[in-house]
Amino acid sequence: MTLMKTLKAGSVWLLACLAFIASCNDHKPKPDNLPHVNENPQAANSIDSSAAPAVPQPGDHRFIVEINKMKFVPDQLTVHKGDTVVWINNDLTNHCVTDTGKAWTSSTIVPGRFWTKVFTKNADYFCAIHVVMKGKIQVE
């Protein structure tokens, strides 16, 4: 094989590998009706909203809890009374969010879907499908 054919074959192989790697990313589309997540690491759990007031007030915030790899991430949040928590199921299986006292439940959240709840008091919760998954919401 000549040097040119070897280089050409190597280039084709490299491009095929890069295409394969790009197609294997772990990106999952978010639901269309979910607000844009703030990319600021200082406010990783909040959501940007163009309609938000200049000075945020208690109850004006949304917090994201990602369900991934059989865990709630983060598994503990501190929110203000009236704030909203959004659980997004980015796992490969169904999950739910259920109050430990069973006062409320999300029902089943299939992969790629989400569920929201406004909080007015503290709550401990778990996934009734996978009882080892637990979380806490602290309301200030």
TrEMBL record:
Q: Where is the composition biased (Polar residues)?
A: 39-49
A molecular function annotated in GO for this UniProt entry is: copper ion binding
User: Domain Blue (type 1) copper: where?
Assistant: 65-140
Q: Which residues are the signal sequence here?
A: 1-24
The answer to whether the entry has keyword Signal is yes
* Superkingdom: Bacteria
- Give any Pfam family that matches: Copper-bind
Q: Which SUPFAM superfamilies match?
A: Cupredoxins
Region described as Disordered: 32-54
Keywords in alphabetical order, please.
Copper, Metal-binding, Signal
> Could you tell me which PANTHER family the record lists for this protein?
BLL1555 PROTEIN
Q: What is this protein called?
A: Blue (type 1) copper domain-containing protein
